[in-house]
Design a protein that fits this description.
This protein has 8 helices and 9 strands. Helix 3 packs across helix 5. The strands form 3 sheets. Strands 5-4-3-9 form a 4-stranded mixed β-sheet. A 3-stranded antiparallel β-sheet has the order 6-8-7. The protein has a two-stranded parallel ribbon with strand order 1-2. The chain is globular. With about 200 residues, the protein is of the alpha/beta class. The relative contact order is 0.13. The chain folds into 2 domains: about 50 residues; about 140 residues, Arc Repressor Mutant, subunit A (Orthogonal Bundle), CATH 1.10.10.
Length: about 200
Amino acid sequence: MKIILINDEKKDLAEYIEAIKNVDEGVMIRGFRVADAYRDIVTNEIGNLSFPVMVEGKRIHARTFGTFEVYIDGIPVTSKYNKTRELFAYLIDKNGTMADIHEIQTALWEGDTTKHTSYLKNLRADMIATLEAKGVADVLVRQHGRMGIIPDMIDCDYFDMLSGSERAIRMYNGEYMSQYSWAEFTNGTLMGIKEEYMSR
Protein backbone atom coordinates (compact mmCIF):
# COMPACT_ATOMS: atom_id res chain seq x y z
CA MET A 1 0.00 0.00 0.00
CA LYS A 2 1.26 3.48 -0.82
CA ILE A 3 1.15 6.07 1.95
CA ILE A 4 0.68 9.64 0.83
CA LEU A 5 1.23 12.52 3.23
CA ILE A 6 -0.49 15.71 2.16
CA ASN A 7 1.03 18.97 3.31
CA ASP A 8 -1.83 21.26 4.37
CA GLU A 9 0.16 24.33 3.34
CA LYS A 10 0.64 23.15 -0.22
CA LYS A 11 -1.73 25.03 -2.53
CA ASP A 12 -1.69 22.67 -5.51
CA LEU A 13 -2.97 19.17 -4.67
CA ALA A 14 -3.07 17.98 -8.27
CA GLU A 15 0.07 15.85 -7.98
CA TYR A 16 -1.34 14.06 -4.94
CA ILE A 17 -4.64 13.38 -6.66
CA GLU A 18 -2.82 11.98 -9.70
CA ALA A 19 -0.82 9.67 -7.43
CA ILE A 20 -4.00 8.51 -5.71
CA LYS A 21 -5.59 7.59 -9.03
CA ASN A 22 -2.61 5.43 -9.97
CA VAL A 23 -2.60 3.21 -6.88
CA ASP A 24 -4.42 -0.11 -7.26
CA GLU A 25 -4.72 -1.19 -3.64
CA GLY A 26 -5.87 2.06 -2.11
CA VAL A 27 -4.13 4.87 -0.33
CA MET A 28 -3.67 5.80 3.30
CA ILE A 29 -3.74 9.55 3.69
CA ARG A 30 -2.74 11.15 6.95
CA GLY A 31 -3.13 14.70 8.15
CA PHE A 32 -5.11 15.88 5.17
CA ARG A 33 -7.46 18.78 4.69
CA VAL A 34 -8.72 18.32 1.16
CA ALA A 35 -10.41 20.92 -1.01
CA ASP A 36 -14.04 20.21 -1.95
CA ALA A 37 -13.07 19.47 -5.55
CA TYR A 38 -10.96 16.49 -4.42
CA ARG A 39 -12.91 15.23 -1.40
CA ASP A 40 -14.91 12.55 -3.28
CA ILE A 41 -11.77 11.10 -4.85
CA VAL A 42 -9.93 10.94 -1.54
CA THR A 43 -12.91 9.51 0.36
CA ASN A 44 -13.42 6.85 -2.30
CA GLU A 45 -9.77 5.78 -2.08
CA ILE A 46 -9.92 5.55 1.71
CA GLY A 47 -12.89 3.23 1.28
CA ASN A 48 -10.81 1.01 -1.01
CA LEU A 49 -7.96 0.45 1.43
CA SER A 50 -6.77 -3.15 1.59
CA PHE A 51 -6.54 -2.72 5.35
CA PRO A 52 -8.52 -0.31 7.51
CA VAL A 53 -7.35 2.96 8.94
CA MET A 54 -7.04 2.30 12.66
CA VAL A 55 -9.19 4.37 14.99
CA GLU A 56 -7.56 5.13 18.31
CA GLY A 57 -9.14 3.18 21.16
CA LYS A 58 -11.07 0.75 18.94
CA ARG A 59 -9.43 -2.56 18.12
CA ILE A 60 -12.31 -3.90 16.02
CA HIS A 61 -13.00 -2.45 12.60
CA ALA A 62 -15.97 -3.58 10.50
CA ARG A 63 -16.35 -2.69 6.84
CA THR A 64 -19.97 -3.05 5.73
CA PHE A 65 -20.08 -0.99 2.54
CA GLY A 66 -19.68 -3.42 -0.34
CA THR A 67 -18.92 -6.86 1.08
CA PHE A 68 -18.59 -7.38 4.81
CA GLU A 69 -15.16 -7.73 6.41
CA VAL A 70 -14.02 -7.49 10.01
CA TYR A 71 -10.53 -6.74 11.34
CA ILE A 72 -8.98 -6.87 14.79
CA ASP A 73 -5.87 -4.72 15.20
CA GLY A 74 -5.89 -4.25 11.42
CA ILE A 75 -5.76 -7.98 10.61
CA PRO A 76 -8.70 -9.77 8.90
CA VAL A 77 -10.44 -12.11 11.32
CA THR A 78 -10.67 -15.81 10.50
CA SER A 79 -12.75 -18.43 12.28
CA LYS A 80 -13.52 -22.13 12.17
CA TYR A 81 -16.80 -21.78 10.25
CA ASN A 82 -17.46 -19.44 7.31
CA LYS A 83 -20.92 -18.68 8.66
CA THR A 84 -19.45 -17.35 11.92
CA ARG A 85 -18.58 -14.18 10.00
CA GLU A 86 -22.21 -13.88 8.89
CA LEU A 87 -23.42 -14.23 12.49
CA PHE A 88 -21.13 -11.39 13.56
CA ALA A 89 -22.25 -9.32 10.55
CA TYR A 90 -25.89 -9.83 11.53
CA LEU A 91 -25.20 -8.63 15.07
CA ILE A 92 -23.52 -5.53 13.65
CA ASP A 93 -26.53 -4.93 11.44
CA LYS A 94 -28.68 -4.97 14.59
CA ASN A 95 -26.61 -2.00 15.86
CA GLY A 96 -26.68 -3.02 19.52
CA THR A 97 -30.22 -4.40 19.61
CA MET A 98 -30.35 -7.87 21.12
CA ALA A 99 -31.28 -10.65 18.68
CA ASP A 100 -32.90 -13.88 19.81
CA ILE A 101 -32.03 -17.32 18.49
CA HIS A 102 -35.14 -17.69 16.31
CA GLU A 103 -34.57 -14.30 14.69
CA ILE A 104 -30.95 -15.16 13.92
CA GLN A 105 -31.92 -18.54 12.45
CA THR A 106 -34.57 -16.90 10.28
CA ALA A 107 -32.04 -14.43 8.89
CA LEU A 108 -29.06 -16.73 8.41
CA TRP A 109 -31.06 -19.61 6.93
CA GLU A 110 -33.76 -17.56 5.18
CA GLY A 111 -36.75 -18.54 7.26
CA ASP A 112 -35.77 -22.07 8.29
CA THR A 113 -35.73 -22.03 12.11
CA THR A 114 -36.03 -25.75 12.80
CA LYS A 115 -32.93 -27.52 11.48
CA HIS A 116 -30.02 -25.38 12.53
CA THR A 117 -30.20 -24.98 16.30
CA SER A 118 -27.12 -27.08 17.03
CA TYR A 119 -25.18 -25.49 14.14
CA LEU A 120 -26.01 -22.02 15.49
CA LYS A 121 -24.66 -23.09 18.89
CA ASN A 122 -21.42 -24.09 17.15
CA LEU A 123 -21.27 -20.73 15.37
CA ARG A 124 -21.86 -18.88 18.63
CA ALA A 125 -19.12 -20.87 20.39
CA ASP A 126 -16.75 -20.30 17.45
CA MET A 127 -17.42 -16.56 17.48
CA ILE A 128 -16.84 -16.33 21.23
CA ALA A 129 -13.63 -18.37 21.00
CA THR A 130 -12.34 -16.25 18.11
CA LEU A 131 -12.98 -13.00 19.97
CA GLU A 132 -11.61 -14.36 23.26
CA ALA A 133 -8.39 -15.39 21.52
CA LYS A 134 -7.94 -11.75 20.47
CA GLY A 135 -8.95 -10.36 23.85
CA VAL A 136 -12.08 -8.57 22.61
CA ALA A 137 -14.89 -10.93 23.66
CA ASP A 138 -16.37 -8.14 25.80
CA VAL A 139 -17.78 -6.66 22.58
CA LEU A 140 -20.49 -9.35 22.84
CA VAL A 141 -23.52 -9.08 25.08
CA ARG A 142 -24.91 -12.52 25.94
CA GLN A 143 -28.17 -13.37 27.63
CA HIS A 144 -30.17 -16.58 27.72
CA GLY A 145 -31.32 -17.17 24.14
CA ARG A 146 -30.19 -13.73 22.96
CA MET A 147 -27.03 -11.93 21.92
CA GLY A 148 -25.84 -8.59 20.65
CA ILE A 149 -22.79 -6.36 20.34
CA ILE A 150 -21.64 -3.08 21.89
CA PRO A 151 -21.47 -0.65 18.93
CA ASP A 152 -19.19 1.83 20.71
CA MET A 153 -16.41 -0.78 20.74
CA ILE A 154 -16.41 -1.12 16.94
CA ASP A 155 -15.21 1.31 14.29
CA CYS A 156 -17.79 0.80 11.55
CA ASP A 157 -18.77 2.71 8.41
CA TYR A 158 -22.43 1.72 8.93
CA PHE A 159 -22.51 3.11 12.48
CA ASP A 160 -20.80 6.29 11.28
CA MET A 161 -23.36 6.77 8.52
CA LEU A 162 -26.26 6.32 10.92
CA SER A 163 -24.72 8.97 13.17
CA GLY A 164 -24.66 11.44 10.25
CA SER A 165 -20.97 11.33 9.33
CA GLU A 166 -20.53 13.07 5.96
CA ARG A 167 -17.40 11.02 5.31
CA ALA A 168 -19.34 7.77 5.75
CA ILE A 169 -22.24 8.99 3.62
CA ARG A 170 -19.84 9.89 0.82
CA MET A 171 -18.13 6.49 1.08
CA TYR A 172 -21.42 4.61 0.76
CA ASN A 173 -21.80 3.50 -2.87
CA GLY A 174 -25.17 1.75 -2.80
CA GLU A 175 -23.90 -1.61 -1.52
CA TYR A 176 -24.09 -2.86 2.05
CA MET A 177 -22.97 -6.33 3.13
CA SER A 178 -23.79 -7.37 -0.41
CA GLN A 179 -23.12 -11.09 0.18
CA TYR A 180 -26.06 -11.37 2.61
CA SER A 181 -29.68 -11.23 1.41
CA TRP A 182 -30.98 -10.19 4.85
CA ALA A 183 -28.96 -6.96 4.56
CA GLU A 184 -31.13 -5.63 1.73
CA PHE A 185 -33.58 -3.94 4.11
CA THR A 186 -30.82 -1.95 5.82
CA ASN A 187 -29.32 -1.14 2.44
CA GLY A 188 -32.63 0.48 1.49
CA THR A 189 -32.43 2.63 4.62
CA LEU A 190 -28.88 3.69 3.77
CA MET A 191 -29.91 4.55 0.21
CA GLY A 192 -32.56 6.85 1.67
CA ILE A 193 -29.96 8.59 3.84
CA LYS A 194 -27.66 9.01 0.83
CA GLU A 195 -30.43 10.39 -1.39
CA GLU A 196 -31.47 12.88 1.28
CA TYR A 197 -27.86 14.00 1.66
CA MET A 198 -27.37 14.41 -2.10
CA SER A 199 -30.58 16.45 -2.43
CA ARG A 200 -29.39 19.15 0.00
